[in-house]
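Can anyone check this?
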Amino acid sequence: TPFASHMVDTWSIGNVTMQFAINDVFAKNPTWGDDFRAGKVNFIDSPEYKKAYEYNKLIYDNTWTDETFSLQQTDCDARLVQGKAAMKVSGSWSIQNFLDIDEDFDFGIFPFPNQTGDAKLIFEPNMCYMKSATTEHSDAVDKVFDVITGDKELALEIYNYTKTSSMLKDVSPTFKNPSQKDIDEYASKGMIIDANLGNSQLQWGGFQEENAKDIAAWLQGQATLEDALKASDSRRENSKP
């Protein structure tokens, strides 16, 4: 099987669709979302965004089609480790699953190819911390943040457990990550792109998430691709982050 997938998760469809769009849409026009809200561009007549939606069909046609809308992520990741699929369009959050299943699992990472042949590896913070603007415990929250971002020994423990990379200087996770050499190579060539390029242009809740539901309906024969694209256009007012 070419692709491992778990399309039962709306977030998975939405996430990979944005991955496709980052390299084919937003890398070419960083203000595409603003232009969309201004009525200058649309999903229905954007060849680049249409292709981003169509990539989901490419995966769907080359995966366990009869199971992807019922299979959970952990089971999907296990199948990849077991050699039942060759690739998975995913993110670093799967690495923890891979290595929990088989600590010696060997794998690499590369950008999903875009239409112009210059796709970059996507970087995105995996854990984000927020503080309420109205909290009565602002100082206490700040102290927690100080510990998380300042205690390098704690940070190392977190990264080694979650199997993620560090955003703190001078903190290098020690867990075995076969894909690190690929990441380092892309970084050395300047072939890294920030996921915020797209996510700062289009809202997740109420927009990207709803688009993903329409893509799922299309893949399952309950709607057409044009229906899904038009539905995205109809949510224009909900698209601003």
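Reply from J.R.: I decoded it. The mean pLDDT is 94.
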